[in-house]
Amino acid sequence: MKTFLINLDRSPARLDFMRGQFETIGVDFVRIPAVDGATLARSEYSGSPLGLGEIGCLLSHREAWRRLVASQDKFAAVFEDDARLSRGISPLLKDRGWIPPKAGIVKLETVLFKIRLAGRPIAAKSRVLKRLVSNHLGTAGYIIRRDQAERLLSLTATFQAPVDHYMFTEPYLSEGVVYQISPAPVLQRSIFDDIGDDGAFTSLLGHGDGASKPKPKRPIHRKFADELLRPFRQIRWKLAGIERTIVRFD
What we know:
Blueprint: E1 2-7, H1 12-25, E2 30-33, H2 52-70, E3 75-80, E4 83-85, H3 90-94, E5 105-107, E6 114-124, E7 127-132, E8 141-145, H4 146-155, H5 163-168, E9 178-182, E10 186-188, H6 189-192, H7 220-239, E11 242-246
Parallel strand pairs: 1-2, 1-3, 5-9
Antiparallel strand pairs: 3-8, 4-10, 5-8, 6-7, 6-11, 7-9
Helix pairs in contact: 2-4
């Protein structure tokens, strides 16, 4: 299984950070030069609501998927260059025999927010896998199967949403092919570490003409309704075998 690392040419500090981690765990990687949103022309993506930085990020992941589809490999691991890797990730990247037949994507990352997982746990080396059934944004690290990479290439061709929205939100999750590994061996660096004065690990998604606008706040009546419905949702989740949990990093 090939390991791809997406890295901007103007981010050598990130490349050094990731190279050191991969050397520590004994895994080789193939660098994919990331598409820099600062070099893109807005006129070429006039039909997209995304900022140019987000488009560059999506294009970079599409290149990883394209390389997988063009290869003879069944799976590839894809990482962004600001991911903290657990040392325990090594056996997951060196042997794909633990990946369930139905898994199209295995999310290796956690963002330490509550998410919903379903189904019986499946052993994965010293970890477990369950189906992801709620939003869990972030693309710092994941494993993808070739047919799902091909599908995502088609799905993302119009650049209507950020890459993690395509992969880890509905309706894609309803297909039942996305699995979450727990504990997660990947955590975005900005979550655990001070980014430092040089700004080497600040987000580059907004570089260019700006990122997507933040979502508006929910009205008070919607919040009140959500609170009233919460007990009923919890009962429904329990009957469906769904757990709401925070996946820890290890």
